[in-house]
Amino acid sequence: MRKGPPMRREPRHVGRKRIGIIAAVLATSLIAGACSSSSSTSGSGGATAPGVTATSITIGATTPLTGPAAPGYDEIAAASNAVFKWANATGGVNGRQINYIVKDDGYNPATTVSLTRELVQQNNIFATVGSLGTPTQAAAQGFLNTNKVPQLFVESGCNCWSQPQYPWTFGWQPNYTTEGKILGQYIKQNFAGQKIGYLYQADEFGQDFIKGLDAELPATSVVSRQNYDAATLAGPMSDQIAALKAAGAQVVCLGTIPAATALALLPAASIGYKPQFVTANVGSDPPTVDKLLASFSKGAAGSALMNGMISDAFMPPESDTSNAWIQAIQKVLTKYDPGAPLDGNTETGVGIGYTFIQALQKAGPKLTRAGLVSAIETDAAKFVTPGLVPLTYSKSDHFGYSGVQMMTINNGAATTMGPVYTSAISGPVKAYTGSTQPPPASMLNLK
Amino acid sequence: MLRHLLLGAVAAFGFYILTSAISSFNDFRVGEIAVYAIALAGLSLLTGTNGQISLGQGAFMAVGAYTLGVLMTHTHLPLVVDVLAAIGLSGALGLVVGMPATRLKGPYLAGMTLILALGLPRIADKYSTFFGGDQGLTVNSPTPPGTIDPQRWLSWIEIVGAIVVLILLANLTRSRFGRSFRAVRDDEIAAGLSGIHVARTKVLAFTVAASCAGLAGAFLGLSVGVVNTGEFSLTLSIYLLAGMVLGGAGSLVGAWWGAIVLVFMPGWSTSIANSFNLGSAVGANLALVVFGLVLIVVIMAAPMGIQGGIGWLGRRALSLVGGGVPAPGAPTPRQEGNEPVGSIPSIPPPAAPAAPARNIREQS
What we know:
The structure holds 2 protein chains of 2 kinds.
Chain A: H1 14-37, E1 56-63, H2 70-89, E2 97-104, H3 109-122, E3 128-129, H4 134-146, E4 151-154, E5 169-171, H5 176-190, E6 196-201, H6 204-216, E7 222-228, H7 238-246, E8 251-255, H8 258-270, E9 276-279, H9 286-296, E10 309-313, H10 324-336, H11 344-363, H12 369-379, E11 403-410, E12 413-422, E13 430-432, H13 441-444
Parallel strand pairs in A: 1-2, 3-4, 4-5, 6-7, 6-8, 8-9
Antiparallel strand pairs in A: 10-11, 11-12, 12-13
Chain B: H1 2-21, H2 24-49, H3 57-74, H4 79-101, H5 106-126, H6 128-131, E1 137-138, H7 150-173, H8 176-186, H9 188-193, H10 198-224, E2 226-227, H11 234-247, H12 252-275, H13 280-301, H14 305-321
Antiparallel strand pairs in B: 1-2
Helix pairs in contact in B: 1-7, 2-7, 2-10, 2-11, 2-12, 3-4, 3-5, 3-10, 4-10, 7-10, 8-10, 11-12, 11-14, 12-13, 12-14
């Protein structure tokens, strides 16, 4: 460090300058404020709710487009927007064109809240649709509900989206406890008497998932419970895997994100430990995990390590190209979101977009926020979605899908098997007997 | 000192006019600026005035925010008690951390504080039932008296907090302690020989900076409505350090500039991206690029940040208007662009005018 100059005497003439500077601060922030407030729009001409005019409806979302959570998740909002573009090209919904404003929150809840306020108070949106993330959307939940702004189809399996004090919030995917129960029942029926081990993320995702498993599996069969901290996950989880092997676990349940799935499979392979892996949907997307396995092992390992893994899905696997929904989604993406891959993220985006369009249609031409929420609560079961189970929104249940189908993974592709099961945080696991709904012909025949 | 009180009163009046004239959302933003200004002012004192580089300011904000969150969840004390506890606890932690930190310098100190920024939020993850986990702890905004807009009321509280903090810090930096801070920054041995207790001075600066961060964190929790670990990532600490340098290290007014940049930069760069029709993948990352570019440009063109640059422009304008244009080739030591704001012109800089840009921490 360079040595500084001798100490200076205290300034005497600082006062006047300081006043000028404070005035400058004020002037600048005033100008900045004026600039941004000029961008606000107010509904007019047949308006029934904020963000709605006779010819348009403005909605928004916050989602990570930058930062560690962005890869993959940044595809979702663009895929939803592809559906909106498709609807707009055919005249919009009830004559209204959908404007979708997507803002990047970098997965930082403070930013989410600031951007959500901007969307509601400056951009004058009607609702948020398809925002992503547990910590981020939990932070925005209070503000949106206080202001009676619908918070629709939040992408997270947190148990927090269905609470009576938040009537304007709706989750999208099955909550992690329901998913854990369905996997737990499958293990109980198919691997009876075997020793079971857990490896889960030490946060709400992992704990909610384990809660579901514990509800179904006899406590005496669980021989080892290992966990990891997502924030410090840096290398292969050799210790946890060694502990599971030492305890003699024959079935290992993974409540893991994709990177952690890969970091569990690698040390297991290197010590020759081959239990039956049963993985939560979040951490089992084959293309994603394959890429990570190859990257972490510098190309030495790949999709073969996932062979035989059991997981579950609430959407048809993207590898099932005979599925009409997969074909329709591919057509929408090709035309309105060119270059986007067909994977679990874009499927989710299209599903959310098309569900919102149907909710708007049900709510009718006299659109209000309360009317939209009531349309979702009463008619969601009739909505056509790519999901393997229908949406089960009701007045008392704001979780989206309430079930999953089991699947096995081999050679980098997932294959669904057996019946679709439904359940809830409490209550039994039941086989679902209904059938899936085909996509609309106008989407399937899109040129 | 009276002058600072008067300036604070003028600023408070200006903010009152400003917040009354703008929309509720812009009130929120002005409140955010005040919150960041508090954190930046503390960091500016620590780094600019006392020469200790800290990457842990965001961690101390987390301590303040969680103190408020825990107290609000489990007790029903008045808000002012919660906020004072937030200041006190983060200040106490600053004291504890500051003691070993006195033995570390420059990048080593930055490394140690980096561990704080990474490690402290993990405690909240570890004990998620107590600290609320991913969803965090819900924090209720104070209820305003009468018909005042709740957002405007919160912004006023934050602005008043910021002004009070800045008045206190301004008085502190002009006092014996401020002179000790600068003496220790400039030369620890010389300061020690002059009878200044070097370690105690450094710990004091650390404690003051941590207390400021605690207040800023508590206010941030009130603004967001929820306290969770996602708000206090390492990125926050790095942004604070960058914002402090941008505004002007060691300058309290510079803290406002840094705060304005931190609050408005993402929006500006997104509108730039939109006006050039850049894709969302490019547009979303543009904020980081613009932030980096601005940081480079500011450090190259005005090493003492925006505040230093403005001071230089102001003096330049004054000398053009009042003193006439200096003869070409005449020594013009006051136009180096590095002159600390408020320095006395009769003391020439010790180095020749062509000396390399002075260190950014010299502004007082």
